[in-house]
Amino acid sequence: MLEWLIVGGGPQGVIFARALQRYTCLDPSSLVIVDRNRTLLSEWQRNTQRCGMHYLRSPGAHSLEPDFGNLFQFARTRGFDPATHLMGRYQRPSLELFAEHSREVIRRGELEGRLRSATVDALSRERDSWTATTSDGTSYEARSVLLATGPGRPEPAPQWCFNLRRDVWGHVFDSAWELPAGAPANRVAVIGGGATGAQLAVRCARLGSDVVLVVENPPIVEQFDSDPCFIGRRCGADYERASRDERRRMVTAARRPGTIPPDVALTLDRAVKRGDLRLVVGHIVAAMTEHGAVSLELASGEVLSVDRVALATGFHWDVEEARSLVSDPLPVDPGGLPMISPWLEWAEHLFVTGRLAEGEIGPPAPNLIGAHNAAKRVIAWMKGEAATPVRGWSHYR
Ligand SMILES: Cc1cc2nc3c(=O)[nH]c(=O)nc-3n(C[C@H](O)[C@H](O)[C@H](O)COP(=O)(O)OP(=O)(O)OC[C@H]3O[C@@H](n4cnc5c(N)ncnc54)[C@H](O)[C@@H]3O)c2cc1C
């Protein structure tokens, strides 16, 4: 029987696996990560590359290794020029540096060898273990399971999309999506004013497309996508004291969806000023395909004529996807979040991370630092510690 089964080999699953390796006496062969993809971090890499992200939004201290100086040390020893690969006050790593470091972390932990490529279809509890059944018919028995199943599915398309031919539109986070570059489909509408939309619009323009970025509201500039105060003890302690209702309100107030970091805002602004792309603030009310071209009608009456539509509208998260894996009903609060213990246990020996752990970890739960805060909790539980560990920047205990 395995000690740990991790469902999901994205950043959250990998961070937890590395924390187990570093801070517990886990026998390496008693850990398995099951992911739909053939390699770890597939969806993270695909999504960040597609939208043309150059720098992570989070600081370089937040990497996949549970040691907050590790990426900087790696950058130094591997000769990454800090002027190019670490941006600004928060030392945000370039995507290239982060990817190289992530490969190194996975290599150190020999984690690709622990990956099994399959979809977990069901989890059932029998006496003192969980059995996971997968799409390829294999089953895994483990003492404990971590659900690290990700940020959800691409946000459903707006209704007007369904008037268009299916091959002219898609969501940038759909697995089958392709970059709309080059003739003849050269005029592209990117829909969505967050960091993904802004970066994608600039990327398409650089590749030679005639781009219009359509946003509901003028872009809002914010360094981070949620209030960093909740990473550490200051706001974290308030969060832990708050009732579930108050926590929900705190998360809503602390999250900054659809905002863009200053460097992306500057790049977008320059691209607009140079005439490389057009920024249109408006609400699309209708769409149609005529003679192969797409017409998008805005509430203002303006009609945009394009060849392809790229939706960059984020993710839609639904607790039921994870919940439906388990045959016994798992408790969910009225806000749709798992009712979990402070140690992130949803059912006996079934733990969660990422958005699923938001009720305990708070606003940063889906981010890299949220994964570390979650891993610290579960490891403290494994060690039988009475109090939940300190959040944030401090090292694991
Ligand atoms: C463009 C972009 C940029 C971002 N930038 C940052 C940043 O700079 N800093 C930061 O902290 N955060 C950032 N984030 C947020 C967050 O870190 C990422 O979304 C990250 O990928 C989340 O990791 P994850 O492991 O939860 O999800 P994923 O990377 O999606 O991994 C989840 C994995 O679980 C697998 N899975 C799900 N269900 C099953 C199942 N039943 N069976 C088998 N496998 C399953 C999926 O196939 C997937 O591979 C960014 C997000 C995006 C989209």
Characterize the structure shown.
The chain has 397 residues and is an alpha/beta fold. The strands form six sheets. Strands 1, 2, 5, 6, 7, 8, 21 and 22 form an eight-stranded mixed β-sheet that branches. It has a five-stranded parallel β-sheet with strand order 10-19-11-12-15. The protein has helices spanning 11-23, 42-50, 70-77, 82-85, 95-108, 195-206, 233-241, 244-254, 262-273, 319-323, 358-361, 368-382; strands at residues 2-7, 31-35, 86-87, 92-93, 115-117, 120-126, 129-134, 139-147, 153-154, 169-171, 187-191, 210-215, 220-221, 259-260, 277-281, 284-290, 293-298, 303-306, 308-311, 315-316, 345-347, 350-352. The protein folds into two domains: 2-152 and 317-382, FAD/NAD(P)-binding domain (3-Layer(bba) Sandwich), CATH 3.50.50.60; 154-223 and 261-315, FAD/NAD(P)-binding domain (3-Layer(bba) Sandwich), CATH 3.50.50. β16 (284-290) and β17 form a beta hairpin. The two termini are 27 Å apart. The longest helix has 15 residues, at 368-382. Flavin-adenine dinucleotide is lined by residues 7-13, 34-37, 42-44, 47-48, 51, 53, 56-58, 62, 119-120, 148-151, 196, 354, 366-368.
